[in-house]
Design brief:
Layout: H1 4-14, E1 26-30, E2 33-36, E3 41-44, H2 47-50, H3 59-71, H4 82-94, E4 99-105, H5 108-123, E5 127-131, H6 140-144, H7 151-154, E6 162-165, H8 170-176, E7 181-186, H9 200-213, E8 216-220, E9 247-250, E10 261-266, H10 267-270, H11 286-301, H12 304-319, E11 325-331, E12 334-339, H13 344-352, E13 356-357, E14 366-369, H14 377-388
Parallel strand pairs: 3-13, 5-6, 5-7, 7-8, 8-9
Antiparallel strand pairs: 1-2, 2-3, 4-10, 9-10, 11-12, 12-14
Helix pairs in contact: 3-11, 4-11
Bound molecules: pyridoxal-5'-phosphate (PLP).
Pyridoxal-5'-phosphate binds near residues 108, 136, 137 and 187.
């Protein structure tokens, strides 16, 4: 099937209609570009839904996956594996220094479910504090932790023990956190809420409060992790005033598109988890591990983290005094451009007239950019010129 209308019709007939789709069928990709069934090329500044950090089909990642697929696709954690050992070692080596072990799973929501479970097991407590505007996934516990739009409503009946505080407001956290709280979990930049940020001092205050009350601090870095903010992780970086959380959760970029999630934990957490406390058949499978290792290597080899900072600088410089733009928010290759009014028309026109894919958010006035970390300044310039027009 190569005809777009035919592809669309078949998908619409056979797939449950859970997403509002763009009217293109993507069939190929390289770097920041994807090609469609009609042979058109689109500049992808949404990175395949914040996933393709290394760009589409990065040659190093593709070669590693191909080699692993020929050798062995899968065996579970019931056996040891060289590729799993190397992926875990590499991931821990780039993580904040206090995070020393990883639990691999398959998605962001699963990484968060396991992080919350580990916090409950470590503390013997049940309550979880999250923040209004944060998004943590769609399985039962994660959706109950998501105080954004109608997600908790979709996820009813909710898991008990979830309460929300206001992002950036430590007094609101103090009002709900106590010595019955297992974890405080947050997206350090609230992406889906419209790229909302908090000052570094807020993260230091959170760390202090968690230490005072014995609470586990979880950073959901499903979007901010793996170099996207211009740092390997938000936790431990200058953005968090150098404080380190007890757990960082990851997915999206971690496997360059091969489904994989992870919770990286410190000694306090790992020493509380016993055999058979957690598990998942596919977590740590060889194909996913090859993708993780190659992704981390590609980011390092191609200096993508430095590039992410340059991208932020260029976008901020170019749009700081542009008309109709209220503010540019975010870090590195996670940017939100807030306009004076709704961005739907701009988003659609970038797509249909300029063949540039961008993202929206739950804030109707914010256009979201989550490009591959290897996007070039020339490619960003194409977007800036289109936006100007
Ligand atoms: C910050 C954050 N956490 C968790 C998730 C859930 O990840 P997944 O869709 O892989 O379950 C997402 C997905 O968009 C996310 O953005």
């Amino acid at each position: 099937m190569t005809n777009f209308q035919e592809i669309r019709q078949t998908e619409d007939v056979f797939q449950v209609a859970t997403y509002k789709k763009m009217a293109i069928a993507v069939e190929g990709g390289r770097g920041s570009w994807v090609s469609t069934s009609d042979g058109a090329r689109y500049l992808d500044l949404y990175g395949g839904h914040a996933v393709c950090a290394t760009g589409h089909s990065h040659p190093h990642v593709v070669a590693a996956i191909r080699m692993q697929a020929e050798r062995l696709l899968f065996y579970s954690n019931l056996v040891y594996s060289n590729i799993r050992a190397r992926a875990a070692e590499k991931l821990v080596s780039v993580a904040p220094s206090s995070l020393s072990k990883v639990f691999f799973c398959n998605s962001g929501t699963e990484a968060n479910e396991n992080a919350m479970r580990m916090a409950r097991m470590t503390t013997g407590r049940e309550k979880i504090v999250t923040f209004s505007g944060g998004f943590h996934g769609r399985t039962a516990d994660s959706i109950s932790a998501t105080f954004l739009g109608k997600y908790r409503e979709i996820g009813r009946p909710n898991v008990p023990g979830h309460v929300a505080a206001e992002f950036g407001d430590i007094e609101s956290v103090r009002a709900v956190a106590d010595n019955r709280t297992a974890a405080i979990m947050l997206e350090p930049i609230q992406s889906m809420a419209g790229v909302r940020e908090a000052p570094p001092a807020f993260f230091r205050e959170l760390r202090g409060l968690c230490d005072e009350l014995g609470i586990v601090l979880i950073f959901d870095e499903v979007q901010t992790g793996i170099g996207r903010t211009g740092n390997w992780f938000f936790g431990g970086s200058v953005l968090a005033d150098f404080i380190e959380p007890d757990i960082i959760t990851l997915a999206k970029s971690l496997g360059s598109g091969v489904p994989v999630g992870a919770s990286i934990v410190n000694e306090r957490i790992s020493s509380s988890i016993k055999e058979n406390d957690l598990g998942t058949t596919f977590g740590g499978g060889m194909l996913a591990m090859a993708a993780v290792l190659a992704t981390l290597e590609a980011i390092e080899k191609d200096a993508m983290i430095e590039n992410a900072r340059a991208v932020e600088h260029l976008v901020r410089e170019s749009l700081s005094s542009a008309p109709r733009i209220v503010q540019v928010r975010g870090k590195g290759c996670l940017l939100g451009i807030e306009f004076e009014d709704a961005v739907t028309a701009i988003h659609d026109r970038l797509l249909t007239r300029h063949r540039i894919i961008t993202g929206t958010s739950s804030n109707p006035n914010v256009l979201r950019l989550l490009p591959p970390l290897c996007v070039t300044t020339e490619e960003v310039d194409l977007f800036l010129a289109a936006l100007n027009e």
